[in-house]
Amino acid sequence: MTRTSLPTRVAVFGTAFLALSVLTACASAPQPGSPVENAADSAYTWWDPYPQHDANSAWAKRVNACGQQAGVTIKRTAYDTTALTNQALLAGQEGNAPDVILLDNPVVSTLADAGMLATMSDFGLDTARFDKNLIAAGELDGKAYGVPIGANTLALYYNKKILEDAGVNPESIKDWDSLTAALKKVKAVGKKPITFAGIGTEEGSFQFLPWFWGAGAQLTQLDSPQAVEALKLWNSWLKDGLAPNSVINNSQNTTWEEFLTGDFAFAENGTWQIDSAAKANFPTGIVQIPAKNGGAAPTPTGGEFLTVPIQKDTKRYDATKKILECMTTPEGLVETGTTFAYYIPSTTGGQEAILAKEPKLKPWVEAVRSAKGRTSDNLGTKYPKISEALWTGVQKALSGSASPADALKDAQAQAKQATGN
């Protein structure tokens, strides 16, 4: 593909991604690590978005072990996600990029489009074993620029006690109609039916996408009849008192705090809340987010990709390839998945291995297998602009300032202007 110069790309994309929220299982700590320059040939530089995992953590020891297996020493630096993206673009511009960068999946296309990442085929890493729907988040123009270390996604957590009191069998929830019927039963017994995050940020888009995709809508046409149906669903829940007005400003964390009060029957949230749900003061379960007419809706994937910046010294790739292969064996993916409590492995072998160890993860494995990358469909660097238009439209509809149809008509116009098509 034709690319503009890297310095121009850095300026454009560094600004664009300052607003991109962190949507991974592991929340980033507020303080980034300090930069590390490329060291001697025997030292390989590694950057990741996990400053909360210090040099003595299980994660750091795992990274170091893969370096040792490859016959090199790894110098690891951790940044928060936004700082990592900006630092990576700057390093690419200056020609001193690290050997490996672990990137939040929507950011992969940004660095790929900037021309600073090696493709996995050029690099010589076999990607056939990775689930196609997961690796698609790191593809641009049909080429894979990274491999996922795992994935997290969304489902509906439920309060078993409330559903029992309301006479709702969670297995009866197969589509939007049956879910809405269940919510009405919950309301009838005096409980709060559902909460979700509709905040005007990437988190709002992230939580809306299962309903948007579950209606059959596509991100290339935000005002399609299917998209309008999805927004009408959320809107009707607010109007009918099935969801609280707080969802307009809810982040995923505040939504979860609402659910943990024990007052709500359902909450849309992610794999990263598994341990918290197990410690709740009430029994919980999960169901897949249903598509409009039945079956599981595609849910967006969170999680990071191992990427390889282009190096002047191509001989370094041999050890880098060994490091990536070590990180993505079935056993390695399980170790990553349990370290971050929980990431679902990105290969069938890894998924089978983690289920043997943690059978409770079966519903989440199923959810990940039907999930979809936000930058899939070759959206690449257009996604953040489309997402901003989408969450703006959702906000307009939920606040009552515009009808769902008018809000999404404006969103489509905004997205078209921002992306140029």
Outline the structure in words:
- The protein is an alpha/beta fold and 421 residues long.
- It has helices at residues 6-16, 58-69, 81-94, 105-113, 120-123, 132-135, 160-166, 176-188, 202-214, 225-239, 252-260, 274-278, 317-327, 330-339, 348-357, 362-369, 383-399, 404-419, and strands at 43-48, 73-78, 100-104, 139-140, 143-144, 147-148, 154-159, 192-195, 264-270, 284-287, 304-307.
- Strands 2-1-3-11-6 form a five-stranded mixed β-sheet. A four-stranded mixed β-sheet has the order 8-9-7-10. A two-stranded antiparallel sheet has the order 4-5.
- A hairpin with a 2-residue loop joins strand 4 (139-140) and strand 5 (143-144).
- Helix 2 crosses helix 13 (317-327), helix 14 crosses helix 15 (348-357) and helix 17 (383-399) runs antiparallel to helix 18.
- The longest helix has 17 residues, at 383-399.
Compose a concise summary of this entry.
This protein is of the alpha/beta class. Helix content is 45%, strand content 11%. The protein contains 18 helices and eleven strands.
